[in-house]
């Protein structure tokens, strides 16, 4: 198994992902929100890459059971039902509903990787279950960090390193690209206190400034949810649910 890491989606062609097993990471906050929504019983999450498209596919398209969620510059978008705080995606709010999700970086990265053969999303909250899933799959892995405005994000890279650590703990013969080795080293250096690391990132500081400090505490939890958000037919659902359908 070979693991590679892309630090931001900048200039990566959609077709590059064809036949790949891709893991998208956007710790703050899209992939944490997706894991939470799925854990809390959402029917599906539909990631989109423009607000216009989000508006277009909402309305009565899913029998009125649709929620528009997401953010621009960390804040809720006018006309949307929810922002991008994972704490908003409670069972009472999302259970049985379809969530259309637009976010500045995370949902776009997922759409960009849509041609992947296998596409899952990861965050600290579902780290071990994703690692186990990938070990079972036993394919080469491409980790796509959503980054921030096409730039490197520390928190996504540290989470990539944590995932690599989990995989290499229980699997032999894993080869790492330079990007994967760098992620692993960064995790070893900053991963001892995830919350502290999140608070010191550019995005973490912006979230605190905008009143979302509690989100950082939530996003720092390791293995608090047990779902494998898996993308096919343009929607994300829990892998187990898909297999039993
Ligand atoms: C993104 O996709 O850029 C994020 O999830 C932003 C955020 O909600 O803070």
Mean pLDDT: 94
Task: Please list the strands of the largest sheet in the order they lie side by side.
Answer: 6-2-7-1-8
Strand fraction? 15-25%
- Reading the helices and strands in chain order gives EEHEHEHEHEHEHEHHHHEEH
Annotated CATH homologous superfamily: ComB-like
Helix content: 25-40%
Describe this structure in words.
With 245 residues, this protein is α/β, with parallel strands linked by helices. The chain has a single domain (2-233), classed as putative 2-phosphosulfolactate phosphatase (Alpha-Beta Complex), CATH 3.90.1560. Helices cover 40% and strands 18% of the residues. Strands 6-2-7-1-8 form a five-stranded parallel β-sheet, with helices on both faces. Strands 3-5-4 form a three-stranded parallel β-sheet. Helix 5 packs across helix 6 (154-170). It is globular and about 50 Å long. The model has no long low-confidence stretch (mean pLDDT 94). D-malate binds at residues 26, 28-30, 71, 74, 84, 103-106, 146, 207.
